[in-house]
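INTERNAL AUDIT FORM
Audit reference: QA-55
Scope: verify that the stored structure record matches its stored sequence.
Auditor: D.O.
Record contents follow.
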Amino acid sequence: MAKNAEIARALKELALLVEIEGKEKYAARAYKRAVRSITSLGEDIEAVANREELESIPGIGKGISKKIRRYLETGSIPLLERLRARIPVKVMVLDSIPGVGPKTIALLYHELGVTDLDSLEKAARDGKIALLKGMGKKTETQIIEGIDLVRSGLDRTLLADAMSVVETIRQKIQNVDGVNQVVIAGSYRRRRETVGDLDFLVDADDPELVMEAFSTLDNVQDVLVKGPTKTAVRLKSSLQMDLRVIPTESFGAGLQYFTGSVDHNVRLRGIARSMGLKLNEYGLYRDEELVAGEREEDIYESLGLAWITPELRENHGEIDAVKNGTLPHLVKLDDIRGDLHSHTDQSDGSNTIEEMLDAAAEREHEYFCVSDHTQSLTIANGMDEERLLERIEEIDTLNTSGKWDMMILKGAEVDILADGTLDITDDVLAQLDVVTVSVHSRMKDSKKVMTERVCTALENKHVHLLGHPTGRLIGKRAEFEIDLEPVFEVAKKNQVAMELNANPYRLDLNPGNLRAAINMDLKIAINTDAHKVSELDYMKFGIFQARRGWITKSDVLNTMALKDLQKWLKK
């Protein structure tokens, strides 16, 4: 769904330019809302346009739908081109700098002629920004640091990388005398793939003691703000963290406010207003009376809603689902019974098959599939048919050894070739329990070619899973162009499951695509794609992503008991 990303980016740029020009602030808000809807859309926007249903997407009215259709037809939006001519500023680059928004960009452009990253950096290092009204030396220094972050690609942090740091810090704050509770809110609590600044919310008897402990942590590089109720620091890793001490009676309201997405929170505030109430980070009020605030659950209950799990708080239908009783019971880590995609040192893994099996057994898996690469992926020491047959025989022997109290499934990650055929013959594939097929080459093929290529592969009767279906690597490689709707149709016809690759650099499929897949009654296999024993713990990131995609236990292939799974695999 590459067009989705292109259109979202074009509308975001349009919003920034309109805001900088300062003539249509309401239009800028409308474009931003449309961007959020398109980013989370569970199907190709071209397909929606072909059905004449663009205006059914939340936030897309007649004017924006016309611009989208024009982009699909010509690859450009006339208004965007005119604004680019009037305002020759690389707004998308400048907006990615922490602390630099449309108002700052406009000021820098009009006063200093800043148009791109280089001219911004020159103005900052020459000391010109500090002289502007409302800026100052501190802001100038922060902009220089922000430029360095953008240049190094560290303006956002992978969830997995953040988690390894902040959970340790959370525990240290929890251990401070008088601290009653600590929760990390924001996109981190919603388990988004990447996070920006981390929001620590603390209920404490002695705020000053907490602020001191937070600002003097070992890995703090800079203290950006330090006050009685809020402190902001930047770590040596460049991760920024904000800590707020919130009174006990307001902690639930603060937690709700700082967790939900902007759109989710706007929707809740609208519900509150319709009931004659006011909702903010301090509580839910009727006039001056506090109706709810201490517990997050009480906020939702007082608004006539059941509590909504943080992963769903994106205003993608969760509030309506709660109202009509259709909010799903989401899959949990404890529901997983096995892993259907892993690698050993026989291809590009780091550990032996025995070491991987030991690790899987420690995690109490009921079954575990060994699925090394096949021969076309020479860079990964892919297995030819002779080696694969030897592996099949080896696994049969290991299953009869009685060493592991789980079933070892015979698998392979088979390459999809340029014409859609597979690089292992059918008579060998027939001897495998789980056949995962994946694209590892020619990722710049056109959408038509890639779609036909994958659909052809899924027609093979021996295929069970499509591995990392869009090929993305977060922050490193975009999704390749592919139309997933026909892919899903072919997969459904041939009983092929879609993989949710739990590697935190992949998390492929994304939440919108996951919802589209389950709406077509496809099964999802949440797999670690582990290349070493420690990566078997990636499963939790797959669960986070699955929950963001509204996935239930019954949607997931590897929540099945072994006998049920084997029955499904036999098609």
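Auditor finding: record pair retrieved intact. The radius of gyration is 26 Å.
Action required: none
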